[in-house]
Each structure stands twice: as C-alpha cells, then as structure tokens.
C-alpha cells in the first residue's frame, strides 16, 4: 500500500484548481498535474460532493483513513 500523502503533496497536486469543484474534478486535475498514486487514492476516497476550496479538500483527506 502507498504511503499516506502529506498535506503539502495534496495541495501541490491541486495547485491552480478552480473551485467549487467535485471530487472527480479534483482527481482529474491531480492526474493531469502528475500527482502520485497515494494522492490520487486519497482524493478518490473522499466524499463525492462539491468542495469550495483547498481547505475543505484537505479536511476531508485528513478524515479518510
């Protein structure tokens, strides 16, 4: 299993993201910006809803174990 991505890694992969955005939009953006598998797995595991900004995404990522 991949290591847990850091807050910085998740934020870096979402740099330039336009919000609000849904989970699938976040995953697609991270993929096109070279995010590693651990970041993509974390993003895929957060609830599918609309996120208003990076802090909301980070909160959900940290809540998903």
Instruction: Please indicate the percent range of residues in DSSP E strands (runs of 2 or more).
Output: 5-15%
How many whole angstroms does the radius of gyration measure? Answer: 10 Å
Low-confidence stretches: none
Helical run tally: 4
Pfam family, one: DUF2795
Region (Disordered): 30-65
Protein name: DUF2795 domain-containing protein
Organism: Actinomadura adrarensis
Could you give the topology of this structure?
Layout (H helix, E strand, L loop, with lengths): L6 H7 L7 E2 H10 L4 H9 L4 E2 L2 H10 L2
Antiparallel strand pairs: 1-2
InterPro entries: DUF2795
Pfam families: DUF2795 (PF11387)
Protein name: DUF2795 domain-containing protein
